[in-house]
Write a structure and sequence with these properties.
With 383 residues, the protein is an alpha/beta fold. The chain folds into two domains: 193 residues, Rossmann fold, CATH 3.40.50; 180 residues, Rossmann fold, CATH 3.40.50.2000. 43% of the residues lie in helices and 16% in strands. It contains 14 helices and 15 strands. It has a seven-stranded parallel sheet, sandwiched between helices. A six-stranded parallel sheet has the order 12-11-10-13-14-15, sandwiched between helices. A two-stranded parallel sheet has the order 2-4. The longest helix is centred in the last third of the chain and has 20 residues. It is globular and about 65 Å long.
């Protein structure tokens, strides 16, 4: 089968990029032909034909221009089935890995105390463009199936756009278990990374992985660390793309300026999972955090929010700690306290790893391929 995949940008960083790379690899292994439609594609893969989509104009208009030009190129190439990871005009299957933009705006404004900031958020011209594309996508006659990576995303689509539930299926993200096998080198790597960070073995290392610091709640993790500074020797390492200035100021204001470290974007965060003790992601909105699944597979207990789709596979108080309100730094600090005990943390990490290893990339791809094949059969029959 010739499968067309649409992704505006592909870099080595990010959950969608991780999914895309694993998905393509598995499609090729199973004998399918893959054609990618992208503006920026940094990944090179034998057997993948890349159609470059040029965009122009101001940055807020580029998603619209990309959608329009990708449609023209897809119509020209005519793959058997088109799967889009973007809000576009020409997909048979849409993977809603980025969630629902309308829902994200609502939640963002809900945790933004300043009326001025709320006004400025709404004033950003990118939001009307994305909302237009989102509505156009969900009302497109060509769209046969939507794949959500959590039930939360499915509910948001139904609530905001009124789509029938049977048009949306839920397929949780997956990992490659072989990449998370425990071996003798792990302890050496752990010691090396902690040494690079200036963190002793007696220190509790919190790990935050993700780009988009505001949405993923980094400010709340720093505030919780500040509340705990007199109770424990803990540090926070932040792995991902973003401007650290605001967060460093917050850390300094809370008296933990020396306890927060930024690595910048990295191609793989596994060494930081191995070096860490607790994974923390107090996100305001997250369809399904791949980083949470990866951290669990690495044996780390996870502290996150119920606004994270990954929370649907977790057990609060056993393999994870789940928060109702991401902005409640006090509650976050209280929930973190039990995990400061090494023995409790170890038991939680064992449970987390066992849970994560059930969610494999093979299982993910199998589910996705069943969707694609079902859509393909419908196309053939003219449905």
């Amino acid at each position: 089968m010739r499968i067309g995949l649409i992704r505006m940008r592909h870099t080595p960083f990010g959950g969608a990029e991780t999914f895309m790379g694993r998905f393509i690899k598995e499609l090729l292994r199973r004998g399918h032909t893959v054609e990618v439609f992208s503006r920026e594609w940094e990944r090179e893969e034998d057997g993948v034909l890349v159609h470059r989509i040029k965009t122009f104009g101001p940055s807020f208009l580029k998603p619209l221009v990309f959608a329009w030009r990708a449609k023209k190129e897809v119509e020209r190439a005519a793959p058997d089935v088109v799967v889009s990871l973007e809000r576009t005009f020409c997909q048979d299957v849409y993977r809603a890995g980025d969630g629902v933009h309308r829902e994200w705006l609502e939640r963002r404004c809900a945790v933004t105390g300043s009326l001025v900031r709320r006004f400025l958020i709404r004033l950003n011209p990118l939001h009307p463009v994305l909302l237009y594309l989102e509505r156009r996508l969900f009302t497109d006659r060509r769209l046969k199936k939507i794949v959500a990576n959590s039930n939360g995303v499915k509910r948001d689509i139904v609530r905001h756009y009124g789509l029938p539930e049977d048009k949306i299926c839920v397929i949780y993200n997956g990992i490659d278990p072989a990449s998370y096998e425990v071996n003798e080198a792990d302890s050496t790597e752990r010691a090396g990374v902690r040494s690079e960070l200036g963190v002793g073995e007696a220190t509790t290392l919190l790990v935050f992985v993700g780009s988009g610091f505001e949405r993923k709640g980094l400010i709340y993790a720093i505030r919780a660390l500040a509340l705990l500074k007199d109770d424990c020797d803990a540090r926070l390492v932040v792995v991902g793309k973003g401007n650290p200035a605001r967060y460093l100021r917050e850390a300094k204001r809370g008296g933990v300026g020396e306890r927060v470290m930024f690595t910048g974007p990295v191609k793989g965060a596994r060494k930081y999972y191995r070096a860490g003790d607790i994974f923390i992601l107090p996100t305001v909105y997250e369809p399904f955090s791949n980083a949470c699944l990866e951290a669990m597979a690495s044996g780390l207990p996870v502290v996150t929010t119920k606004q994270n789709g990954a929370s649907e596979i977790m057990t609060d108080g056993a393999d994870s700690v789940l928060l109702d309100d991401p902005a409640d730094a006090g509650a976050l600090a209280r929930k973190l306290k039990p995990l400061l005990d090494a023995e409790f943390r170890k038991k939680a990490g064992i449970l987390a790893r066992a849970k994560a290893l059930n969610y494999t990339i093979e299982r993910n791809v199998d589910g996705f391929l069943r969707v694609i094949e079902g859509v393909r059969e419908g196309v053939r029959e003219g449905l």
